[in-house]
Every structure is written in C-alpha cells, then in structure tokens.
Amino acid sequence: MRTLEHSIIAVLARRCLSSRGLILFSLFFISCSISTHIPTVSDDAIERLVQNEAAQIVAVTTDKENFSQYQFFLSDFPRKDILGLSTGNRRIYISYKLGQLAFASPWHRWLLRQTLAHEIAHELAGHVTQNGTTSFNRPALGRGVTGADVGLPEHINFYSYSAEKELEADLKGMEYWTKLHWDCRIWVGILEGFRRQNYFGDVLHPTDERLKQALQACLPESDPERMAIEANLAAGVKNASASPDISR
User: Model confidence over 80-107: pLDDT tens digits?
Assistant: First the structure.
C-alpha cells in the first residue's frame, strides 16, 4: 500500500493535478438562498462516486449520524477551475469536471477526497453560519470571482474566509484522512505540487503556510521528505512552470 501511495504522490507531483495550481481556496458569497439557483448536472455514476467518498469522510466525524442529511450536487461551473462550494446546511457542490476525472484516475480521486474533506471541515466548523455566508472553493489566483463563474448573476459578490479558517479546515481535513488511514503524504504532495508550479496563493490562502502545516501534521521532524521540503521553503526555492490544465 505504501508503494502505491508513494507512486500516486509522484504522479501528483508530475501532473500537479492543477488548473492554475488547483489551490484549495475557500471563499464565500452573500445569501444562502441563491444556492437553489446554482445550475446542476445529473450523472448517476459520478454522483455515486462523490456520495461514497463523502460518506467515508463523514463517517469519521462527529456528524456521522447525520450523513443522510447531506446533499451533494454536481455543477458544470462556467469557470472551469472551480472545484466546489458549500452553501451551509450540509449542501456541497462539486465540479462535474473534477468528478469525471476522479471517476477515471486515482490521482484525481485523491484531489476529490481532499476537496471533500476540506469542505466538510468548513461545514462542521460552522464557518458558514459564523458569517451568515456561504463557503466557496476556488482553486485559482487572479481576478475575483463573479456570480457568473458559478452560473449565477454577475452582481453576486464573493468574499474570502480568513487564512486562519482556511488552515483550520485543512487541519481538520487531514485529521479525517488520518482516521481513514489515508496517507496524508498525499495531501502534502498535492500542496508541494502547487508550489513546484509556482502557485503560492495570496495573503488569505498562502500555499507555503498550508504546506508547512501539512508537513508538521503529517511527517515526523526527522523524515527526509519533510526535511527536504522545509529546506526549500526556508531557502525560498521557487520553480516557475507553465499553467497545466486540470485534465492533464
């Protein structure tokens, strides 16, 4: 199993599983009521995949008795680098494109698992209700997000969670992975893949801080992989590269 997991990490690093880095940014937008208007896609096979992966994660949380209340939807977001969003009340939307890729390849399956763990963590931490707003998972740098990016009117405004909430969701997500005996080296590998492609997030979503946290949570101090990555972080090593497509 460890050999398989490490081979998946290698593939993750090579292919980077990213569209503009696939950084798991979570933002939120005003008015939960608009969630009912987000366009959805019907695909029984992909819906079962998402449901089954989410079921494993929720089963190791304090909310395990309430899984039947969760609702998962597929959405073919007009903006193709959007991975998913949650609108509170256990409603989570997943990119149809990511679902299709996860159905066909193991490395995208891990990315789906990371996305679900991160979003479920936001739900259970109450980040949505704390702000009266909705979590939005957008893996990209650049221009702001508009309602049109998720199939809503352009005038919808989006606002970011704090970096602290993003790190909290990551940490809880990794805790779920540990309980499931999923090697969180894979989580580290995803973030390191972002960094290798020169995707460093922004002040609210710093890839380096997320990577540092993942290293501390997943790997012992004496681990050679952790030591090598930490040395690169300390040295400020950055490797520029082109922006790959998520389907590569």
Answer: 767 878 778 899 999 999 999 999 999 8
d(CA 212, CA 221): 12
Tokens 């190791």, residue located: 60
Q: Please calculate the CA angle 71-74-80 and round it to the nearest 5 degrees.
A: 140
In angstroms, the CA 166 to CA 229 distance is 21
Q: What are the phi and psi torsion angles at 80 (to 5°)?
A: -75, -10
d(CA 118, CA 108): 15
Residue with tokens 């698992």: 113
Q: Over the range 34-56, which residues count as b (16 or more CB within 10 Å of their CB) and which as e?
A: bbeebeebebeebbebbeebbee
Helix, strand, coil in percent for the chain, rounding step 5: 55, 10, 35
Q: Which residue intervals of the chain are DSSP H helices?
A: 2-15, 44-58, 96-104, 106-125, 127-131, 163-179, 185-196, 207-218, 224-235
| pLDDT tens profile 28-78 | 333 334 455 789 999 999 999 999 999 999 999 999 999 999 999 999 988
Calpha distance 246→100 (Å, rounded): 11
CB count within 10 Å of CB 179 equals: 13
For the chain, the structural domain boundaries read 2-235
Reference 138, options 150, 130, 128, 148; nearest CA is: 150
How many residues in total does the chain contain?
248
Give yes or no for a contact between 198 and 238, defined as CB atoms under 8 angstroms apart: yes
Question: 3-class DSSP state for residue 48?
Answer: helix
> What is the mean predicted confidence (pLDDT) over 112-120?
94
